[in-house]
Amino acid sequence: MSKIETMSVNAIRVLSADAIQKAKSGHPGLPLGCASAAYELWANHMNHNPADPNWANRDRFILSGGHGSMLLYSLLHLFGYGDLSKEDIMNFRQLGSLTPGHPEYGHTVGIEATTGPLGAGMAMAVGMAAAETHLAEVFNKEEYPVVDHYTFVLGGDGCMMEGISSEAFSLAGTLGLSKLIVLYDSNKISIEGSTDIAFTENVQKRMEAFGFQTITVEDGNDLEAIGRAIEEAKEDTEHPSFITIKTQIGFGCPAKQGKASAHGEPLGEENVLAMKENLGWPSMEPFYVPDEVYEHYAHLAEEKAETEAAWNVMFAAYCEEYPEMEALWNAYHDENAGEKAIEACADFWSKPEKADATRNISGKILNKIRTCMPNLIGGSADLAPSNKTNMSDMGDFSRENRGGRNLHFGVRELAMTAIGNGMMLHGGLRVFIATFFVFSDYTKPMARLSSLMGVPLTYVFTHDSIGVGEDGPTHEPIEQMAMLRAMPNFHVFRPCDETETECAWYSALTSKKTPTALVLTRQNLTPMEGSSREALKGGYVIDDCEGTPDLIFIASGSEVELAVNAKKLLADRKVRVVSMPCMDLFEEQSAEYKESVLPKSVRKRVAVEALSDFGWGRYVGLDGACVTMTGFGASGPANQLFEHFGFTADHVAEVARSL
């Protein structure tokens, strides 16, 4: 390692330690231990351009161990990303700063994914690698590899302990995603001490079993060995690669090196000074970095810019020779692709003709839109025949067919969701995922990241209530609706018929920053006479009375018809029925619109939904009532279950009269 390389690596350590010490909060262990590996990767093996952080063919880098965020912020600052200044580094973890505690996508330039929940970055990296290979199949021509980049992800023992990494890596190995390269920070330390207390498996053997090439670097500070390992990983075009890099947590700090206490607390002022002295740092001044180090990083950044410039020349020639591919490229990367696709789909909006399950209707809509929206890709957690999410004649994405648009995630709901996030984050694709609604529990942590990142991933959740029937309470969702409705920036759409299902898909495919869940039935639903595109407002009057109502039914999904039928039994009352397919969208409407649908003067209100009542209080108030589920359902024919749990017109009308 040359002197300037040593200084450049240690600059990462010093900035990280000083920022964490100033904040009196943070995780210095990973930045100190992984500084050498990160420097070698970013300086010598990763194609990226600080002057153009969104360059389409850049290599992606995800810090799965997001607690070590100062490693990433130090790299971004030193390479000159987006003018991330020294003041930004000094404001680490402060309110409103560009350097929050964990990396946040869309908040800080150069951050490819929001990470923090361990293992999540590993799975999102699998999604990015899958997106790269699919887009390469679509766009690359002989002598024009316009999509040709790697996905690198760095994580540690915690990421490998979390089950999501095994789910995702199992699929990555099956698919042979050879441009996925995992850097494993193996320091044998967790918060509670040595990993031997809970984690003694042979990780390399596990990764081999998944279908990865495995490589080991014995010294985490040996830049040449790290570089050789990365190049060896790139040479394998059949398997993803897993590089174990043996490091020491908190490297360079004599009192903390190799100890659990280096993980999640500042080193202490005396220990920071001792670290600088131990590393031979030329100044004890906080945040000091020598000019020659900045000059070295600037030179590296200039070289990176040259790589993009060469790609730009190639891409221009590609567009000139293949103008139809340029048009397709622009269509894939158009943020308004959803609106344009639906406009081009002549029969997207169709008149309901017969009773049908909304899962079936959804499947028909998906197969209408598939040809109009060529960048639409997705699949199910081994439930496509039940979720109705197979796109006819679009092929299956596999090791042999990278161009296939039907994804098979296997029974891996958690990883599926993260992989969907990763594919969307990569850019160029519109992705949907699917499973039974009750198993949205398995998707929740990564759905939360969709919301947090503003990634408009589409979730298709079928078998939405006790209508599941014979499978019983383990498969009958109850509280899941409330769980997802409680999440900020997440639209939960439970349509009552074909028209509302079309609105749900329209809303999902045109959303720019908000993920959408389509919650769909197994049982047939009757087309509702009053249903309309007003459903795009989240809630609307589907069946009204003359004048001001004295009672309002509010329902979603299969219970809208039930509410309408209950109204017929209350001929002596002025009753309005409101369909509320998406509370979240309704709350985004103006106060005037919401008042027109649910006048405050009408206090007698009944919510009807075969799910938990949690969340309905804001609409029914203290004077209202709910016909909802209070238990976990039962096993039996669906029609018997609805009657057993009180979802009949007679019972709903009786509850209304009791008001």
UniProtKB/TrEMBL annotation:
UniProt key word Metal-binding: yes
Broad EC category: transferase
The UniProt record lists the keyword Magnesium: yes
PROSITE patterns hit by this protein: TRANSKETOLASE_1 (PS00801), TRANSKETOLASE_2 (PS00802)
Catalytic activity: D-sedoheptulose 7-phosphate + D-glyceraldehyde 3-phosphate = aldehydo-D-ribose 5-phosphate + D-xylulose 5-phosphate
Keywords: Calcium, Magnesium, Metal-binding, Thiamine pyrophosphate, Transferase
Secretion signal span: none
Domain Transketolase-like pyrimidine-binding: 356-528
A Pfam family annotated for this UniProt entry: Transketolase_C_1
GO molecular function, one term: transketolase activity
Known EC number: 2.2.1.1
Gene3D superfamilies given in the database record: 3.40.50.920, 3.40.50.970
Cofactor(s) needed by this chain: thiamine diphosphate; Mg(2+); Ca(2+); Mn(2+)
CC cofactor note: Binds 1 thiamine pyrophosphate per subunit.
Family: Belongs to the transketolase family.
UniProt xrefs under NCBIfam families: tktlase_bact
Assembly description: Homodimer.
Function: Catalyzes the transfer of a two-carbon ketol group from a ketose donor to an aldose acceptor, via a covalent intermediate with the cofactor thiamine pyrophosphate.
Stored PANTHER family: TRANSKETOLASE, TRANSKETOLASE 1-RELATED
Protein name: Transketolase
